[in-house]
Design brief:
Elements (H helix, E strand, L loop, with lengths): L13 E2 L6 E2 L21 H12 L5 H10 L1 H9 L10 H12 L3 H10 L2 E4 L21 E4 L4 H6 L1 E5 L6 H16 L3 E4 L5 H11 L4 E8 L9 H10 L1 E6 L7 H14 L2 E4 L8 H10 L3 E4 L10 H7 L4 E2 L3 H8 L21 H9 L6 E2 H8 L3 H13 L3 E4 L2 E4 L10
Parallel strand pairs: 5-6, 5-9, 6-7, 7-8, 9-10, 10-11
Antiparallel strand pairs: 1-2, 3-4, 4-8, 12-14, 13-14
Length: about 425
């Protein structure tokens, strides 16, 4: 059985791996005390390596994803730190950038920080890992930093993404809030990006219904961004879930928002775009959802609104029109979870027989007429017309004035509309 050396402090130049410690060359990049190059014996090596990679590489880095699939996270970290053989596919400039980040990566400190925030780091293969994220292939997250009590995998089993414009209209905010509440009431998890506009409205709707909701952040799970949603993000961490690919304390960038959208699309069974302009970031999520084989839905808006043009473009393609939670669930739910059939209001004349309805339509809109003229207009024998007139009288549609018949006014009886 291999025994580890027992220095008082970790020796510079040792990297914890599944194969045991590997001695680095003299003065490698990233051998500051407490860096990736000196971290040993503080946790599972693979978990530490994946936590380190969330600082070393950008989210969705497919080259690093391929390296992990081929060699494992520990060997990738070894290669970046210079304590293992180099890997193919990256130029010197890229290696220099990753090594610079590796020099400042302290995965155990990040794990301690997320634990201090009542969070955890969830890796592929963990019981809590949502397996649908594996559909991202080489762009799959290295791991997810999660805050909140619920189990992410369980909440993601029945989840829907609700996304849209940040500078949304009152119409869009109303639709997103109602949709979020209705989905939550039906036990569906509402997933969005905790941003301004549609995202925030969908989260607030789910929270108002005391239902499940997940915020996928483009920054660290302990960072409240955007600042104006600080209170909402705090509540999401307390009553829902906050999920991030970036380690604690890390900041968002424009590209990270775009990369975050692939996680929203992959995590859920389908995506609903409530409002989006033609250049909206929500359309990135929509395209990702389509590419992953997820259901794509859109809520139509006014044709005069620029914030509906992006949604309408999706609806002209492969997206499905939805107007409420029942129609969304019909798309993403199990077989038999159908939306109720839509019908207009029922009016009393719907219950009339075809013969009675024909006689009713033959009466003049104003004034009265005799039975013979009504029969002629209806194209039925006089006797049948008279029988139907008495039937209509009993039902409150017509009244008799001597030998003449007339419609009862709307204020007194049924409407014939």
């Amino acid at each position: 059985m291999r025994t580890e050396p027992e220095p008082v402090e970790p020796e510079p130049g040792l990297v914890g791996t599944e194969r045991g410690p590997v001695r680095a060359e003299p003065e490698p990049v990233g051998t500051e005390p407490g860096s990736v190059g000196t971290e040993r014996g503080q946790g599972e090596p693979e978990r530490l390596a994946r936590a380190a990679l969330t600082r070393i590489a950008e989210p969705g880095d497919e080259l690093v994803g391929r390296w992990i699939a081929a060699y494992g996270a520990c060997e990738v970290v070894d290669a970046v730190c210079g304590t293992g053989p180099p890997l193919t596919g990256a130029g010197e400039r890229r290696w220099a950038g990753m090594r610079l980040r590796a020099a400042h990566a302290r995965p155990q400190a990040d794990l301690d920080a997320i634990a201090a925030s009542d969070g955890r780091f969830v890796c592929p293969g963990d019981a809590e890992w949502p397996r649908q994220l594996d559909d991202l292939g080489d762009a799959r997250p290295f791991g997810l930093w999660v805050r909140g009590t619920p189990v992410l995998r369980v909440w993601a089993l029945r989840s829907v993404a609700v996304v849209g414009a940040r500078a949304c209209t009152e119409y869009g905010a109303h639709c997103a809030t109602v949709l979020g509440a209705e989905l939550a009431e039906q036990g569906w998890t509402v997933v969005s990006g905790a941003a301004y506009g549609i995202d925030a409205a969908a989260h607030r709707g789910a929270l108002a219904a005391r239902g499940p909701t997940v915020g996928v952040l483009a920054c660290g799970a302990d960072v409240a961004y955007p600042p104006g949603n600080q209170q909402l993000i705090r509540v999401l961490g307390e009553r829902g879930l906050l999920v991030a690919e970036l380690p604690p304390g890390d900041h968002p960038t424009r590209s990270r928002f775009v990369l975050r959208n692939r996680v929203i699309a992959a995590l859920t069974r389908g995506t609903v775009v409530v409002e989006a302009a033609l250049r909206s970031g929500a359309l990135v999520t929509a395209r990702r959802a389509l590419g992953l084989g997820r259901h794509l839905m859109g809520m139509p808006g006014p044709v005069t609104s620029g914030l509906s043009q992006g949604v309408h473009q999706l609806l002209r393609g492969e997206a499905t029109v939805v107007t409420d939670a029942a129609e969304v669930i019909e798309q993403v739910g199990m077989m038999g979870e159908l939306a109720p059939e839509r019908r207009g209001p029922t009016v009393p004349r719907d219950a009339l027989s075809p013969a009675a309805a024909r006689v009713l339509e033959a009466l003049p809109g104003r004034g009265a007429s005799d039975a013979a003229r009504i029969a002629c207009s209806a194209g039925v024998p006089p006797g049948e017309a008279l029988a139907r007139l008495h039937e209509l009288r009993a039902l409150g549609f017509v009244e008799r004035d001597g030998n003449r018949w007339q419609l009862i006014s709307r204020s007194k009886g049924h409407s014939i509309g």
